[in-house]
Amino acid sequence: MPDHELESYLAALAPEQDVETTGTGRRFGNSQVYQLRLDLAANEQLRQLAAELQTSPLSLARDWILERLRWEAERRQRFQRPPQPHWPQA
Known about the structure:
The chain is mainly alpha-helical. The chain has helices at about 5-15, 40-50, 55-80; strands at about 25-30, 30. It comes from Gandjariella thermophila.
């Protein structure tokens, strides 16, 4: 007898047929995939810090990037000059 609940669960986990799953800059669902290369010392530092924080190096790096992007967006909004009025020259 088929297990419809299991089939439904597995179908929900399966990616869409035409979605790329790996490679630099390729789509993964509604996200973009990037490769990040670190030198050995930086990689080891990231791994140690992630272990201390009980997370993965990938999650820690992703969180840092998203945090920095939010910070940059806020900074740009704060320092963005208001539009200057344009007066016609006489």
